[in-house]
Protein backbone atom coordinates (compact mmCIF):
# COMPACT_ATOMS: atom_id res chain seq x y z
CA UNK A 1 0.00 0.00 0.00
CA UNK A 2 1.35 3.43 -0.95
CA UNK A 3 1.59 6.18 1.69
CA UNK A 4 -1.16 8.18 0.06
CA UNK A 5 -3.44 5.14 -0.06
CA UNK A 6 -2.87 4.45 3.64
CA UNK A 7 -3.71 8.03 4.61
CA UNK A 8 -7.04 7.72 2.84
CA UNK A 9 -7.79 4.24 4.15
CA UNK A 10 -10.12 3.54 7.12
CA UNK A 11 -7.27 1.84 9.00
CA UNK A 12 -5.40 5.17 9.31
CA UNK A 13 -8.22 6.73 11.34
CA UNK A 14 -9.64 3.74 13.21
CA UNK A 15 -8.73 3.86 16.94
CA UNK A 16 -9.66 0.20 17.33
CA UNK A 17 -6.58 -0.69 15.27
CA UNK A 18 -4.32 1.90 16.87
CA UNK A 19 -4.40 1.29 20.62
CA UNK A 20 -1.27 -0.40 21.94
CA UNK A 21 -2.55 -4.00 22.18
CA UNK A 22 -3.84 -3.87 18.59
CA UNK A 23 -0.50 -2.72 17.20
CA UNK A 24 1.52 -5.78 16.17
CA UNK A 25 4.92 -4.46 17.31
CA UNK A 26 4.02 -2.43 20.39
CA UNK A 27 1.56 -5.02 21.70
CA UNK A 28 4.39 -7.55 21.84
CA UNK A 29 6.70 -5.06 23.58
CA UNK A 30 4.02 -4.16 26.13
CA UNK A 31 3.24 -7.84 26.75
CA UNK A 32 6.91 -8.52 27.50
CA UNK A 33 6.94 -5.52 29.87
CA UNK A 34 4.00 -6.80 31.92
CA UNK A 35 6.14 -9.05 34.18
CA UNK A 36 8.36 -6.03 34.97
CA UNK A 37 5.35 -3.84 35.69
CA UNK A 38 3.94 -6.54 37.95
CA UNK A 39 7.22 -6.66 39.89
CA UNK A 40 7.29 -2.90 40.56
CA UNK A 41 4.10 -2.67 42.62
CA UNK A 42 3.51 -4.29 45.99
CA UNK A 43 4.61 -7.69 44.65
CA UNK A 44 7.87 -7.51 46.61
CA UNK A 45 6.21 -7.10 49.99
CA UNK A 46 6.68 -10.81 50.79
CA UNK A 47 10.39 -10.42 50.01
CA UNK A 48 10.58 -7.41 52.34
CA UNK A 49 8.61 -9.22 55.05
CA UNK A 50 10.77 -12.34 54.82
CA UNK A 51 14.12 -10.53 54.80
CA UNK A 52 13.24 -8.05 57.53
CA UNK A 53 11.77 -10.67 59.84
CA UNK A 54 8.45 -8.78 59.88
CA UNK A 55 6.77 -11.89 58.52
CA UNK A 56 6.96 -13.52 61.97
CA UNK A 57 4.99 -10.65 63.50
CA UNK A 58 2.36 -10.83 60.75
CA UNK A 59 2.04 -14.61 61.07
CA UNK A 60 1.37 -14.28 64.79
CA UNK A 61 -1.54 -11.93 64.06
CA UNK A 62 -3.01 -13.42 60.87
CA UNK A 63 -1.76 -16.99 60.79
CA UNK A 64 -0.22 -18.72 57.78
CA UNK A 65 -3.37 -19.05 55.67
CA UNK A 66 -4.47 -15.51 56.49
CA UNK A 67 -1.10 -14.13 55.43
CA UNK A 68 -1.06 -16.13 52.19
CA UNK A 69 -4.59 -15.11 51.22
CA UNK A 70 -4.06 -11.48 52.20
CA UNK A 71 -0.71 -11.05 50.47
CA UNK A 72 -1.56 -12.78 47.20
CA UNK A 73 -5.01 -11.23 46.79
CA UNK A 74 -3.69 -7.72 47.48
CA UNK A 75 -0.79 -8.23 45.05
CA UNK A 76 -3.17 -9.56 42.40
CA UNK A 77 -5.58 -6.67 42.86
CA UNK A 78 -2.90 -3.97 42.69
CA UNK A 79 -1.12 -5.35 39.61
CA UNK A 80 -4.45 -6.00 37.87
CA UNK A 81 -5.66 -2.44 38.48
CA UNK A 82 -2.31 -0.89 37.49
CA UNK A 83 -2.31 -2.67 34.13
CA UNK A 84 -5.96 -1.92 33.44
CA UNK A 85 -5.43 1.78 34.18
CA UNK A 86 -2.37 1.99 31.91
CA UNK A 87 -4.22 0.38 29.00
CA UNK A 88 -7.37 2.41 29.67
CA UNK A 89 -5.28 5.60 29.53
CA UNK A 90 -3.78 4.48 26.22
CA UNK A 91 -7.24 3.78 24.77
CA UNK A 92 -8.50 7.16 25.97
CA UNK A 93 -5.52 8.91 24.40
CA UNK A 94 -6.06 7.13 21.06
CA UNK A 95 -9.76 8.01 21.03
CA UNK A 96 -8.92 11.65 21.77
CA UNK A 97 -6.56 11.75 18.79
CA UNK A 98 -8.59 9.77 16.26
CA UNK A 99 -12.24 9.91 15.21
CA UNK A 100 -14.43 7.01 16.24
CA UNK A 101 -14.37 5.27 12.86
CA UNK A 102 -15.81 1.78 13.23
CA UNK A 103 -14.03 -1.16 11.59
CA UNK A 104 -15.65 -2.51 8.45
CA UNK A 105 -15.35 -6.22 7.70
CA UNK A 106 -15.15 -5.63 3.94
CA UNK A 107 -12.91 -2.55 3.87
CA UNK A 108 -10.62 -3.92 6.60
CA UNK A 109 -10.44 -7.49 5.31
CA UNK A 110 -6.73 -7.00 4.63
CA UNK A 111 -5.98 -6.59 8.34
CA UNK A 112 -5.87 -10.37 8.71
CA UNK A 113 -7.98 -10.81 11.83
CA UNK A 114 -9.30 -14.35 12.26
CA UNK A 115 -10.44 -16.73 14.99
CA UNK A 116 -7.04 -18.40 14.87
CA UNK A 117 -5.26 -15.32 16.21
CA UNK A 118 -7.93 -13.18 17.92
CA UNK A 119 -10.40 -14.10 20.64
CA UNK A 120 -13.99 -13.04 19.87
CA UNK A 121 -12.89 -11.75 16.48
CA UNK A 122 -16.55 -11.20 15.54
CA UNK A 123 -16.66 -8.36 18.09
CA UNK A 124 -14.11 -6.43 16.00
CA UNK A 125 -16.85 -5.57 13.50
CA UNK A 126 -19.97 -5.72 15.68
CA UNK A 127 -18.83 -4.63 19.18
CA UNK A 128 -15.24 -3.34 18.81
CA UNK A 129 -15.18 -1.51 22.15
CA UNK A 130 -16.27 -4.72 23.88
CA UNK A 131 -13.26 -6.43 22.30
CA UNK A 132 -10.99 -3.71 23.70
CA UNK A 133 -12.44 -4.23 27.18
CA UNK A 134 -11.94 -7.99 26.87
CA UNK A 135 -8.25 -7.62 26.03
CA UNK A 136 -7.72 -5.02 28.75
CA UNK A 137 -9.16 -7.42 31.33
CA UNK A 138 -7.13 -10.30 29.86
CA UNK A 139 -3.95 -8.24 30.23
CA UNK A 140 -4.90 -7.34 33.79
CA UNK A 141 -5.39 -11.02 34.63
CA UNK A 142 -1.96 -11.85 33.19
CA UNK A 143 -0.38 -9.03 35.20
CA UNK A 144 -2.08 -10.26 38.36
CA UNK A 145 -0.64 -13.73 37.80
CA UNK A 146 2.88 -12.36 37.29
CA UNK A 147 2.46 -10.22 40.39
CA UNK A 148 1.59 -13.32 42.40
CA UNK A 149 4.58 -15.13 40.89
CA UNK A 150 6.89 -12.32 42.03
CA UNK A 151 5.39 -12.42 45.52
CA UNK A 152 5.94 -16.18 45.76
CA UNK A 153 9.53 -15.92 44.53
CA UNK A 154 10.14 -13.33 47.24
CA UNK A 155 9.91 -16.13 49.81
CA UNK A 156 12.45 -18.35 48.06
CA UNK A 157 15.19 -15.99 46.84
CA UNK A 158 17.33 -13.66 48.93
CA UNK A 159 18.41 -11.44 46.03
CA UNK A 160 15.98 -8.66 45.14
CA UNK A 161 16.98 -8.54 41.48
CA UNK A 162 16.36 -12.27 41.15
CA UNK A 163 12.88 -11.74 42.54
CA UNK A 164 12.23 -8.80 40.22
CA UNK A 165 13.33 -10.68 37.10
CA UNK A 166 11.78 -14.03 38.03
CA UNK A 167 8.45 -13.29 36.37
CA UNK A 168 10.09 -12.06 33.18
CA UNK A 169 12.41 -15.07 32.94
CA UNK A 170 9.64 -17.62 33.53
CA UNK A 171 7.34 -15.74 31.17
CA UNK A 172 10.07 -15.64 28.54
CA UNK A 173 10.63 -19.40 28.85
CA UNK A 174 6.94 -20.08 28.21
CA UNK A 175 7.07 -17.48 25.42
CA UNK A 176 9.84 -19.36 23.61
CA UNK A 177 8.36 -22.82 24.23
CA UNK A 178 4.94 -21.78 22.97
CA UNK A 179 6.29 -19.79 20.03
CA UNK A 180 8.43 -22.72 18.86
CA UNK A 181 5.60 -25.16 19.66
CA UNK A 182 8.01 -27.24 21.75
CA UNK A 183 5.34 -28.01 24.34
CA UNK A 184 1.58 -27.71 24.19
CA UNK A 185 1.37 -25.02 26.85
CA UNK A 186 0.01 -21.50 26.30
CA UNK A 187 2.10 -18.40 26.84
CA UNK A 188 0.19 -15.63 28.60
CA UNK A 189 2.48 -13.10 26.91
CA UNK A 190 1.62 -14.35 23.41
CA UNK A 191 -2.16 -14.37 23.81
CA UNK A 192 -2.42 -10.75 25.00
CA UNK A 193 -2.04 -8.92 21.65
CA UNK A 194 -5.32 -8.52 19.78
CA UNK A 195 -3.62 -10.21 16.84
CA UNK A 196 -1.52 -12.97 18.38
CA UNK A 197 1.71 -14.21 16.79
CA UNK A 198 0.67 -17.82 17.42
CA UNK A 199 -2.39 -19.99 17.05
CA UNK A 200 -4.54 -19.30 20.09
CA UNK A 201 -5.55 -22.03 22.52
CA UNK A 202 -9.25 -22.21 23.30
CA UNK A 203 -10.45 -19.86 26.02
CA UNK A 204 -11.53 -22.85 28.09
CA UNK A 205 -8.06 -24.39 27.94
CA UNK A 206 -6.43 -21.04 28.70
CA UNK A 207 -8.73 -20.47 31.70
CA UNK A 208 -8.06 -23.98 33.04
CA UNK A 209 -4.29 -23.52 32.69
CA UNK A 210 -4.58 -20.12 34.38
CA UNK A 211 -6.46 -21.57 37.37
CA UNK A 212 -3.90 -24.37 37.70
CA UNK A 213 -1.11 -21.75 37.80
CA UNK A 214 -2.98 -19.74 40.45
CA UNK A 215 -3.50 -22.87 42.56
CA UNK A 216 0.18 -23.83 42.28
CA UNK A 217 1.23 -20.33 43.33
CA UNK A 218 -0.95 -20.57 46.43
CA UNK A 219 0.63 -23.95 47.26
CA UNK A 220 4.18 -22.63 46.82
CA UNK A 221 3.29 -19.55 48.86
CA UNK A 222 2.03 -21.71 51.74
CA UNK A 223 5.19 -23.84 51.61
CA UNK A 224 7.37 -20.72 51.57
CA UNK A 225 5.53 -19.17 54.51
CA UNK A 226 5.87 -22.38 56.52
CA UNK A 227 9.58 -22.46 55.75
CA UNK A 228 10.06 -18.97 57.16
CA UNK A 229 7.80 -19.69 60.13
CA UNK A 230 9.99 -22.61 61.15
CA UNK A 231 13.25 -20.65 60.97
Automatic annotation (TrEMBL):
Keyword Transmembrane in annotation: yes
Keywords: Membrane, Transmembrane, Transmembrane helix
Species in which this protein is naturally found: Ligilactobacillus ruminis SPM0211
The protein, known as: ABC superfamily ATP binding cassette transporter, membrane protein
Superkingdom in the source lineage: Bacteria
Transmembrane segments: 25-44, 65-98, 132-157, 164-183, 203-225
Amino acid sequence: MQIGEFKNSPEAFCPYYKWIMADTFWSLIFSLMIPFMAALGNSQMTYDDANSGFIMHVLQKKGKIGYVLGSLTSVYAVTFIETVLVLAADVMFVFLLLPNVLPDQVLNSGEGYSRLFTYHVEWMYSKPFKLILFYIVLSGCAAGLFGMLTAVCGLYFSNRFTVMFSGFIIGLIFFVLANQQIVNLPSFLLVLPVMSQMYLPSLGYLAAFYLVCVALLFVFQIVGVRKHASI
